[in-house]
Amino acid sequence: MAGLSPSQVEELLQGPALNPPLGVIPNFDNSYTLLPVANAVKIVTTILATLAIFIRIYTKWRIIREMHLEDYIAVAAWGGYIVFIVTTGFDPKVFGRHQWNIRLVDFQIFLYGTYISSISFGLAILSIKISILLQYIRIFTAGTRDLMFWSCHALMWMTVVFYVILLFMTIFLCTPVPKFWNVLETGHCLNMNYVFLATGTANTISDFLIILLPQPIIWRLQMSFKEHVGVSAIFSTGLLACIASMVRLIISSKLLKNNDVTWLTSIMCIPSYVELGAGIITSCLPTLPRFFKTMAQIPWVSKMCISIPSCFKPSKSSTESKKSSERNITASWVRNHRRSSRLRVERRVLSESYDGLDEWEGNDAVFSITRLGNVTISTGIRNEGNNLEVKNLDDEERGVLKSVQVSVVRQGSEHSEGSNL
User: Fold this and answer.
1) 87, 261, 291, 399: which has the fewest Cβ within 10 Å?
2) How does residue 417 score in pLDDT terms, banded at 50, 70 and 90?
3) What are the backbone dihedrals phi and psi of residue 235, each rounded to the nearest 5 degrees, phi first?
4) Percent of the chain having pLDDT more than 70?
């Protein structure tokens, strides 16, 4: 490049970044691009990952009021993910196009974005794995140094060492460093495709190990088969990240035999979005039950959840709709009562006693049915005149799961009545 005149350099930069296949004419303006597909995947994964990290931090900070190291690391992982999606696909003239349809001057912008995104991807995926493994140690070991404790630590530190080496190689892949993206710079570079291949291989192996680690402990817990499957599924949601990592690995291997870097790297970014997004969501899943349980106790949230089904029911008039809704809910309660022989009925009536739920049909009543695993809690509350009546249906073998204080304040006198469910 040093022997070229300025006009020759300019001509080179305005030419295609790769010689096109035989019979193909470069199209710099209107060539096919993967950008719409990549943007769709990017938007979905970003919304879900951001929502998951928000729920995690809100739950740990405002509800549990106890933040741990893995929570801060999860936030760092989300930050690395945001940097990754910003630095990939930011230039529509380059991303998702065949390299011969890109000018060399624009190809340099693509290479610079690839340099930054490769570093941010490594930092994000490392943070996700550390966050998940630290959660395993906190949840499953409970301060005991058993096989699970040492397995998590061994996998975590092997992952840290590997990614630190990989990040060092990525940062200093070229000498000098600007040679990575500046095609006019003199110097030399290692083959970046081998770094992609090593990253994909390590991700796939470590992802499967992270999924398998807690399974023996989960299946030894004293739970029903259905509960085992449910808990195991929660800790296996990272399987989507494993699949994305395998797809990314396959594409990385093709880069060793194909010089169309912009096309294959753009394809590789799509499963990378899924891998990072699914990893962040997986690391946040243990906090979701506590979050939704707390939200369900907020009156306006509970009222909204009860009223949502009625929005989808046809009605001729507001009165008929109300009666139909009450009849359906009452029937659901009766069916639930007949289905399980373990259930019993407990009544606490502040004014007078009623024999069955059928007597409530057509009256001003509110019903709620909540299921937690194999436990079903059904509650009915009605206010008739000056009297409040409460009926509660729960699983006697599980004991008391939740206590709710109901208060009624009458206008004109501060008289309140309470009932524990």
Assistant:
1) 399
2) very low
3) -85, 0
4) 68
